[in-house]
């Protein structure tokens, strides 16, 4: 169901596009790419320059390579457009240094905040990095049937209200993992 119509006339002031792509590689690893683009439909004067309508204020990328256990094996970041030419882009190589070795499902977001949060990174690239775990999960889901009985609890269970172990959805679609009605 879409959002209800707005209650007042309005004018678009900012457009942010976030794109995430997941790839299975021929070497058995996986690449997850994320891109963030911010544009305006009007001249946008900032302290360093004026950005023309449609010209990106931000156009930034992150790519990680992961294994089957969701360990980050490689990471790269880049900035094709940034508000402070020659300054914003300097931090991109740090993402490769600080993301490699992390696991997307075990303390990833906390470690990212500690390593490249705030002044230690770019707020836009760091925001992109936070999308990577769920994008990886969706990428892996393309390769494994979500209700295949591997003997391991499906990852998506107990990660949202609809797939809580006591829910009707789990009873219906994942009966092995259904835990009965919640008490109390």
Task: Please give a handful of descriptors for the protein shown.
4-stranded antiparallel β-sheet, globular, two-stranded antiparallel sheet, Enolase-like, domain 1, 184 residues, alpha+beta
Could you please describe the fold and organization of this structure?
This protein has 184 residues and is an alpha+beta fold. It has 2 domains: 15-144, Enolase-like, domain 1 (2-Layer Sandwich), CATH 3.30.390; 152-184, no CATH class. The chain is built from 5 helices and 6 strands; from the N terminus they run ββββββααααα. The chain has a 4-stranded antiparallel β-sheet, with helices on one face. Strands 3-4 form a two-stranded antiparallel ribbon.
Short description:
The chain folds into two domains: 15-144, Enolase-like, domain 1; 152-184, no CATH class. Helix content is 22%, strand content 24%. It is built from five helices and six strands.
């Amino acid at each position: 169901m879409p959002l209800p119509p707005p209650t007042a006339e309005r004018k678009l002031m900012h457009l942010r596009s976030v794109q995430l792509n997941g790839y299975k590689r021929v070497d058995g690893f996986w690449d997850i790419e994320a891109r963030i683009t911010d544009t305006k439909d009007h001249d946008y004067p900032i302290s360093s320059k004026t950005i023309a309508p449609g010209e990106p204020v931000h156009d930034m990328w992150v790519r990680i390579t992961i294994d089957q256990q969701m360990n980050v094996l490689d990471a790269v970041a880049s900035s094709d457009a940034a508000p402070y030419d020659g300054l914003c882009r300097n931090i991109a190589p740090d993402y490769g240094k600080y993301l490699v070795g992390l696991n997307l499902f075990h303390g990833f977001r906390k470690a990212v905040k500690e390593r490249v949060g705030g002044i230690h990174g770019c707020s836009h690239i760091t925001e992109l990095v936070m999308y990577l775990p769920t994008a990886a999960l969706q990428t892996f889901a393309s390769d494994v049937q979500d209700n295949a009985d591997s003997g391991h609890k499906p990852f998506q269970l107990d990660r949202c209200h609809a797939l809580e172990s006591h829910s009707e959805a789990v009873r219906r679609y994942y009966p092995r993992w259904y835990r009965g009605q919640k008490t109390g």
